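Sanity check

After download, print the first record. It should look like this:
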Amino acid sequence: MEQPIQTNIFREEGNNYIPFLKKGIFVWGKTKKPAFTLAEGATHVALLKNKRKSAFTLAEVLITLAVIGVVAALTIPTLVKNYEEKATVTKVKKMYNTLFNAYRLAILDYGTAGEWGITGRDEGSQDEDEETYNATNAILVRDKLLKNVKTVKLCDNAKDQKACGVADEIYCIDGKNIDFAISSSSKSQTASALLADGSTVVIIANGGVYGFAYRGPGELSNTYANIYYDINGTKSPNTYGKDIFLFYVTENSIIPCGSTNETKFAFANNCYHGYGVACTAWVIYNENMDYLHCDDLSWNGKHKCD
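Expected structure tokens:
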């Protein structure tokens, strides 16, 4: 039998040598030594027939999917809720900056709120479909304060309020008690505005025989108007501390309800309990809504849940 020849079995292409078969020998590398020898006339190497094939069984796949489903059911709602709360915090802080800057500009044009001619809280009408009564003091505050804020629609009378995103019913933070301050027949005491981002601002003027609404010492001793900010208009939950937040117009500033100096609506009594209006300052300064998840937070203690 002719012996395999192991010379001249490299084909030169450029600077490289390409191995090829000659007389049943496969050669690799520039040493020109055979890597292995094929049988005479063989053209390929067959795979081993006993090579083991691995795969998941149907039961294993189903178990894995079930575990993934359970983990997703436990974690996804929490992730979604965390995202929604962070988005709310961002919106409330943005509105605070918007109102603060708007008031700065209004002061340049009209002086401070004490110079605007506010005579007190509007009496309102007992007819929730009132179309003729306008809350002149609330309208005065709204038009001066929001002069430099982009609005889509302004609403003056009670029947008109829903067109500006004012919900039919507004709830306390416990979700049970309805707050009538800006709902039902008291809508006629308000002036509202629908903003370009779909949020709503509702204003009620203070003052009159009761004075300009004392809320605490210093800047809070006179509050000329309440500003209710609803981040999503008529969409649920329409609840203080969740999607509705309260600000005050004072002599020189815009102050969020529930700040450390406030005595009327203190955080401890009116965020966890009561209306829920005192959560506004907490959201802005602590940048969280953890009061919805634990009940031992305070301005002088814990600022986040464990």
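If your output differs, re-run the checksum step. Summary of this record's structure: The first strand starts at residue 10 and ends at 13.
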